[in-house]
């Protein structure tokens, strides 16, 4: 199928996003980073992984969220329900669980004074209880965090009273992805990279295909190219604050001998699920979670801010379970190719941040094929400077929108 390579077609479909330069200040300003902590990461639903990470009752995972100054304890209870709590003993505020993950066979015990809690967060034992003053254990459970599941993914919301349910937050995207066989795929590999770069710099670098012919040695013609050999996406879709861009497989890509072997060894690798828009779909789930769907596999990104110029990039790759040596070879080949692509992507992140820190660049110049980045930065600014927070919007002479605090 031939893709229509129209010029500047996305702004025609989404004129409200404007065409002007996008301010860089949210990637460099410590003051705005503090606003992001409160207005983005403490108020929106955040992905914590998949329910497969908690396979049985008592399974737990601890996630330290520097951006929110908290540690989160995720646990599957005896009733198999997944719950989230602040990882804090309610007695004197000690960190309750130190291990990154494990299996709680009975109760969580604070190593400071041995207060104990069950997997539902209830306080079950207090040492020297009789010496306290009218203590009520039923009112002193672990501090809960709103938690819910979407398509097997675990999300939390640090707002004690979330303004939206998770289903409402993911509205629109649910109908698009519903039916994808997440449960038929297993974790193939996981990478964790700490970088000296703002979280948005990392996300922006993945959120477009404009760079493919120039940066990627591994797979420069991944998606269709126009007559001038520039990359073009097939579709750009908005789901409220979230987005997806899609591409077809480039019919002109010449397979290397190893690629041919890998594709022939794994026929499932060529299958496109009906829920997919293109051969490759890239979803940005605001604020910091991405899902990448290729024929036969999917990959997730979680990009966690540590400071205004430091972040952790977590990458997880999922593929169908198999016992066939030929298919295992194909999967290992895909894992290695993903690793190489990620290394090529990461090669620029810290250099971009260093340049932005110099103050030499006040705005990004975005073209039509970077429409998804324009949308993402508008959402960031909307959450930071929204009208309820006293924002002033001014149209500049290039149709962009600049937002500043009063």
Architecture overview:
The protein contains 10 helices and 21 strands. The chain is an alpha+beta fold and 406 residues long. The strands form 5 sheets. Strands 2-11-10-5-4-3-6 form a 7-stranded antiparallel sheet, with no helix packed on it. A hairpin with a 5-residue loop joins β20 and β21. α7 packs across α8. The longest helix is centred in the last third of the chain and has 22 residues. It starts with 8 loop residues before the first helix and ends with a strand.
SSE blueprint:
Blueprint: H1 9-13, E1 22-23, H2 30-41, E2 46-50, E3 59-65, E4 70-76, E5 82-86, E6 101-103, E7 108-109, E8 116-117, E9 123-125, E10 144-150, E11 153-157, H3 166-169, H4 173-177, E12 185-195, H5 199-206, H6 212-215, E13 235-239, E14 242-247, H7 257-265, E15 280-285, E16 289-294, E17 297-307, E18 310-320, H8 325-346, H9 349-357, E19 363-364, H10 371-385, E20 391-395, E21 401-405
Antiparallel strand pairs: 1-19, 2-11, 3-4, 3-6, 4-5, 5-10, 7-8, 8-9, 10-11, 12-18, 13-14, 14-15, 15-16, 16-17, 17-18, 20-21
Strand content: 25-35%
Find the count of extended strands (DSSP E, 2+ residues). 21
Oligomer state of the chains in this structure: single chain
Helix and strand content put the structural class at alpha+beta
Main β-sheet, spatial strand arrangement? 2-11-10-5-4-3-6
Distance between the termini: 51 Å
Radius of gyration: 23 Å
Which residue ranges are poorly predicted, with pLDDT under 50 across at least 5 consecutive positions?
A: 1-5, 387-406
Determine the number of helices (DSSP H or I, runs of at least 4 residues).
10
- Residues in helices, as a percent range: 10-25%
How would you describe the shape? Answer: globular
Average pLDDT for all residues: 87
Largest sheet: 7 strands, antiparallel
């Amino acid at each position: 199928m031939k893709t229509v390579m129209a010029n500047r077609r996305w702004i025609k479909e989404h004129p409200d996003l404007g065409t002007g330069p996008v301010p860089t200040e949210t990637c460099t300003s410590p003051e705005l980073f503090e606003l992001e902590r409160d207005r983005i990461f403490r108020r929106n639903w955040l992905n914590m992984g998949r329910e497969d990470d908690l396979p049985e009752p008592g399974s737990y995972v601890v996630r330290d969220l520097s951006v929110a100054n908290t540690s989160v304890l995720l646990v599957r209870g005896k009733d198999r329900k997944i719950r989230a709590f602040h990882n804090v003993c309610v007695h004197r505020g000690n960190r309750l669980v130190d291990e990154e993950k494990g299996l709680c066979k009975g109760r969580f015990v604070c190593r400071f004074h041995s207060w104990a809690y069950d997997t539902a967060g209830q306080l079950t034992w207090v040492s020297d209880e009789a010496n306290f003053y009218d203590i009520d254990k039923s009112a002193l459970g672990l501090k809960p965090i709103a938690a819910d599941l979407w398509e097997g993914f675990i999300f939390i919301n640090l707002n004690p009273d979330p303004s939206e349910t998770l289903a409402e937050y993911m509205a629109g995207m649910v109908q698009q992805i519903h039916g994808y066989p997440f449960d038929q795929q297993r974790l193939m590999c996981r990478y964790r990279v700490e970088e000296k770069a703002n979280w948005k710099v990392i996300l922006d670098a993945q959120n477009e295909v404009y760079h493919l012919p120039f940066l990627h040695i591994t797979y420069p013609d991944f998606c269709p190219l126009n007559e001038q050999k520039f990359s073009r996406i097939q579709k750009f879709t908005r789901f409220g604050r979230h987005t997806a861009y899609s591409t077809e497989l480039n019919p002109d890509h010449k397979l290397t001998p190893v690629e041919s072997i890998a594709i022939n060894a794994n026929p499932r690798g060529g299958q496109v699920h009906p829920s997919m828009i293109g051969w490759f779909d890239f979803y940005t789930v605001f604020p910091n979670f991405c899902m990448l769907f290729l024929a036969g596999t999917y990959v997730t990104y979680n990009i966690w801010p540590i400071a205004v110029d430091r972040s952790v990039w977590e990458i997880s790759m999922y593929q169908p379970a198999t016992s066939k040596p030929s298919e295992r070879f194909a999967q290992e080949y895909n894992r290695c190719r993903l690793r190489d692509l990620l290394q090529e992507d990461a090669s620029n992140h810290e250099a971009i941040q260093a340049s932005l820190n110099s103050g030499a660049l006040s705005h990004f110049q975005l073209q039509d094929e970077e429409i998804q980045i324009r949308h993402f930065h508008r959402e960031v600014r909307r959450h930071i400077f929204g009208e309820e927070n006293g924002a002033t919007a001014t149209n500049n002479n290039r149709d962009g929108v600049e937002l500043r605090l009063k």
